[in-house]
Design goal:
It is built from 17 helices and 8 strands. It is of the alpha/beta class. The longest helix is centred in the middle third of the chain and has 36 residues. The protein is globular, with a radius of gyration of 31 Å. It comes from Antrihabitans stalagmiti.
């Protein structure tokens, strides 16, 4: 007898559960919370002879489902997960105009009989879970820092181009320390060249000194000359710049600490460095791939790993016609982003990837589309290495094992894409896409003037 417990997980409200035996619902809509008392009461109501006969079906709702999955797994039940999109589509089949927690739990209880191949077994939190969380946290921190840098750029533009020419756009420690204290041109002039030079040397460990100090003093004088005596409230502008600079310094510290933790976790998750052996994969990207994929054996095939990344194309087939309108983007977005970056670097080292890139770019394909193809291939190779426990090996198109330097030389000599041809194809594809999507330039006004002279003759009559 197949006993299935479907649980619609809630983050703040009570969960709802439905029990089915051989696909027939026994009871539905049982409410409970994540507490040992109510979980024990629910377990008593299940009335199963052997815990292994019970299958618990969950949707991965934020992190609230993990506690329930681990509790039932410790009791001996089989815990499986189902993607939220699949359960939502099945619910619409049963009830198109109604959606509630009781109905969701009932659908989950029937899923093992309706769509068993869509279930994924929960094997417990693995060693890659902390790495998975931390890589996502680092990505969020980097995006926040990028936003802070953009706001700093906008504020420094008010000071004039001289400041940007000296400080640059990367905003190192010395630049941020300077902006946190001396965003006012008057304060820079009062500080003077000697003290400003010593300040920059101390914050940059001797890398910057006299030349940047002289440039900043000149930029401060230029700012005052551009705005005049009463053109800008420099104190308020300096306060705004200081806020952004201090946020950037704090984020830099946080990212540095996260990088150290990621390095330690990656060493535990991939002690042989199999992921890092792939071309185009550095310390950050290797940690993301190892953390987001986790145990590669939890996937049924390499195709399932590609589908998880969202780099596989959509398919629209009917009769003899078939189209592939872009990739699904249905998987892990951070994994997809890092694979795209890695593939763009790997094609400059791996001759096999470079040959495919040239073949794809020989037509009118957009560069991003070609890189997505390479990213899917690179993921397949890395996953195969992870499953077999062997490092990535560079080979030329004849199958001969080569070094990184040899691969880079082969790519430079044999697989080069004309930049002009690449840009022309990209612009043409962009124009076609905008025309198909109804973007700018896709519609012509019927009343627009033509290049030919008008043929309409307007007759005027003198008034009486």
């Amino acid at each position: 007898m197949n006993v299935t417990l479907g649980i619609d997980v809630a983050c703040r409200a009570a969960h709802q559960a439905s029990l089915a035996r051989d696909g027939r619902v026994v009871w539905r809509g049982r409410k409970f919370t994540t507490s040992t008392t109510e979980l024990e009461a629910l377990w008593a109501d299940l009335d199963v002879a052997q815990p292994a006969e019970l299958t618990v079906v969950l949707e991965p709702t934020r992190n609230a489902w993990i506690v329930l999955a681990q509790w039932f797994r410790r009791r001996g039940a089989r815990v499986v997960m189902v993607p939220t999109t699949q359960s939502a589509d099945l619910r619409k089949y049963y009830s198109k105009h109604a959606k509630n927690d009781r109905l969701d739990s009932e659908i989950l209880a029937k899923l093992p009989l309706l769509h068993p191949e869509g279930l994924r077994a929960f094997t417990g939190p693995g060693t890659a879970d902390p790495l998975r969380r931390l890589t996502k946290q680092r990505s969020t921190m980097v995006k926040r820092r990028t936003a802070v840098f953009s706001r700093l750029d906008a504020l420094i533009e008010l000071l004039g181009p001289g400041w940007y020419a000296v400080l640059g756009s990367d905003y190192g420690k010395a630049a941020l320390a300077f902006l946190a204290r001396y965003g006012d041109p008057n304060a820079v002039l009062r500080l003077g060249h000697s003290r400003l030079s010593r300040f920059l040397q101390a914050r940059s460990r001797g890398q910057y000194g006299d030349a940047p100090a002289a440039g900043l003093i000149a930029a401060a004088r230029e700012s005052l000359a551009l705005w005049g005596a009463d053109g800008m409230d420099w104190a308020e502008l300096a306060a705004d710049i200081a806020v952004e600079a201090e946020q950037a310094m704090y984020l830099n510290t946080q990212i540095h600490d996260i990088d150290e933790r990621i390095a330690n976790l990656y060493a535990d998750a991939d002690p042989s460095g199999i992921v890092a052996s792939a071309p185009g994969v550095g310390p950050v990207i290797s940690a993301v791939i190892a953390g987001r994929i986790g145990d590669p054996h939890r996937f049924t095939s390499l195709a399932a790993i590609r589908a998880y990344s969202g780099l596989v194309p959509k398919v629209n087939q009917s009769g003899v016609g078939e189209t592939k309108p872009g990739i699904t983007k249905a998987g892990d977005p951070l994994l997809r982003e890092m694979l795209f970056i890695a593939a763009d670097h790997a094609r400059q080292v791996d001759p096999q990837l470079a040959a495919k890139y040239v073949r794809l770019m020989s037509g009118d394909r957009h560069r991003d589309s070609a890189i997505c193809h390479l990213a899917a291939d690179l993921l397949t190779r890395i996953a195969a290495c992870m499953r077999s426990g062997t490092p990535y090996v560079l080979r030329d198109n004849d199958g001969r094992e080569i070094t990184t330097d040899e691969g880079r030389q082969i790519v430079r000599s044999q697989y080069r894409v004309d930049p002009k041809r690449r840009d022309t194809a990209a612009h043409r594809r962009m124009r076609e896409r905008r025309a198909n999507e109804g973007g700018p330039g896709s519609q012509k006004s019927p009343s627009a003037p033509t290049s030919r002279p008008a043929t309409t003759i307007i007759e005027t009559h003198a008034s009486a």
